[in-house]
Amino acid sequence: MDFSLDLPTGPLAEAILATVRTSENPSVANHSLRSFFFAQLLAAHEGCLDDAAYDRDLLFAATVLHDLGTGDLATGKARFEVEGADLAASLLRQHQVPEADVDRVWEAIALHTSPGIAERRGLLSYLTREGVGIDFGRHAQIVSRWEQQIHAAYPRLAMVRSLVDAIVERAARSDAAAPRYALGGELLRERRADGVTSLERTAAACPWGE
Q1: Does residue 6 form part of some domain?
Q2: Domain CATH for 60
Q3: Structural domains of the chain, count
Q4: What does the DSSP assignment read for the chain?
Q5: Burial of 207: CB neighbours in 10 Å, binned 0-12, 13-18, 19+
Q6: Spatial separation of the C-alpha atoms in residues 61 and 193, rounded to whole Å
Q7: Which pLDDT score is estimated for 111?
Q8: Cα 189 from chain centroid?
Q9: pLDDT at 95
Q10: Comparing C-alpha atoms, which of 81, 85, 74 is closest to residue 173?
Q11: Within a domain: residue 177?
């Protein structure tokens, strides 16, 4: 397939990029952009690009904004996935995105850490979760032809440690942000107990490192 590092254009895409780049640390912002490219490549690999449910602009919104709850705009009053979904929905509404599409993006972001659920909530939720997962090394072979190009444009910058630090910091702000068995809550408990989380321990298995 033809592949390029071109991003969607227009006021909404510009607002998405500006929001991420000014509220998240650079390693998390780069992770979010890589997730978009990886999700596109997965969609091409699985023959989804012509699917009626495939929408590149919504995929850009969901993947690039999926960790907004770890950034400076998040208050730590709810799970980072939910705060990020709420923040993303607010941004989309400011740009008159139809409510049905806002809801799809909200769901994809809110469920991106929920294995076994996101995959069953439609193509956008599936691609968002799997695009994020590829950046952690899951099904890396699908993007092996293009990953060097993507990483050159958006380097990792110790992504796993930076992302875990951001999730844990916000999870520590309130009980509502760290419920039992939610990713933020479990990472917070692991960090407090052992000083290192299971996500950081498994980062070495990622073919691209941390």
Answers
A1: no
A2: 1.10.3210.10
A3: 1
A4: ---------SHHHHHHHHHHHHHS-HHHHHHHHHHHHHHHHHHHHTT-TTSTT--HHHHHHHHHTTTGGGSTT--SSS-HHHHHHHHHHHHHHHTT--HHHHHHHHHHHHTTT-TTTGGGS-HHHHHHHHHHHHHTTTTGGGGTTTHHHHHHHS--SSHHHHHHHHHHHHHTT-GGGS-TTSHHHHHHHHHHHHSS-HHHHHGGGSTT--
A5: exposed
A6: 35
A7: 97
A8: 22
A9: 97
A10: 74
A11: no
Q: Give the global pTM.
A: 0.94
Q: What are the structure tokens assigned to 53, written together?
A: 């449910």
Q: Is residue 190 part of a domain?
A: no
Residue range(s) defining the domain that contains residue 127: 11-155
- 90 φ, ψ (degrees, to nearest 5): -60, -45
pLDDT in tens, the chain (210 residues): 678 899 999 999 999 999 999 999 999 999 999 999 999 999 999 999 999 999 999 999 999 999 999 999 999 999 999 999 999 999 999 999 999 999 999 999 999 999 999 999 999 999 999 999 999 988 889 999 999 999 999 999 989 999 999 999 999 999 999 999 999 988 999 888 887 777 777 776 778 776
Tell whether 151 is covered by a domain: yes
From CA 128, how far away is CA 113, in angstroms rounded? 10
